[in-house]
Amino acid sequence: MNFLDGSLFPENQQKLVITCAPYGPEWMPSDFPEDIPVTMEAQVQKAVDCYNAGATVLHLHVRELDGKGSKRLSKFNELIEGIRARVPEMIIQVGGSISFAPEDDGQVAKWLSDDTRHMLAELSPKPDQVTIAINSNQMNVVEQMCEADIRGTSLATPEGYLAYREMTIPAGPAWVEEHIQRLSDNGIQTHFQLANITQLETVERMMRRNVCNVPLILTWVAIGGGFDAPNLYNLANFVRACPDGSVLTLETTMLNVLPLNMMAIAMGLHVRCGIEDNIWTQRRDRKMGSVEQIEQLVRISNEFGRDVANAQEAREIYKIGTFYKNADETLAANGFAPNRRDGQQGFTQYAA
Fold this sequence. Notes:
The protein is of the alpha/beta class. The protein has helices spanning 40-53, 73-86, 114-118, 147-150, 158-165, 173-185, 197-208, 232-241, 257-267, 290-304, 311-317, 327-334, and strands spanning 18-20, 57-60, 91-94, 129-133, 137-138, 168-169, 189-194, 217-222, 247-252, 270-273. The strands form 2 sheets. An 8-stranded parallel β-barrel has the order 1-2-3-4-7-8-9-10, surrounded by 7 helices. It starts with 17 loop residues before the first strand and ends in an 18-residue tail after the last helix.
């Protein structure tokens, strides 16, 4: 990404796309009963409330009536249908893990099987996006959390802490390529959730091999524990590595969320908030729900002079419904240098 003179002026930036993750599968309802919806009606209403507050992308997980994360695709279909009926323009982004919450006490939190996750491509009504991780990796979401972050919650119990400390992401090359193809065949956009530059490089190689002909819509997930830490140096290196045609959202956890989102707003990038990422105010004097977090970002973005995208504008920025026919078109649209031709010497570049 290039930061030329004037790149920090709001009139030269895209409008802000706000993603909200209000379902928080790592928490139990008792951790924040005022803001964790359990019934289907409440889960649909939470999406409506987030949309009305200014979020145009909904990161979706589903709960069963017992409060645990649902692993039934029928429940996902039901929630998506309910949201489509109430806020049809909202971008629905299904979390590709389905739900990583452990089913019983003492179990490790884990993503579902390869075959089950492939079935996300068959959801009906279909979502706009499904998130995907690249390269199997540790996902120790509690590594950079401190005692104050989890005090009084289910993550503070020995079994809760251990469950999430040992979580890993299964995302091997064959599964990833097949999953992207299945999603594309069904008109569902792949949203890349990337832990570091090495995963971005893997995506670029897939595009060069003609097995990933999609827009580079991605989130830098800076949560530690196998992912980048949310510091300025990691951020700058990742942003520098992103090509000009990519669309980048920043994500982190707990009290890192607001500072990182303020950086994203200032830089012309995009933001994510919600109780899946953080449940506290910056002073930790009380818990802060998803809608209030959205309203805070809208207020701050307005102070920066940067308008918040409406749903139609967010769909255009995210290139919803766009797919490419081959590697050459994919590389050009995403801002990567072209593939080297047979016998070509020197640095590759697009012809003037």
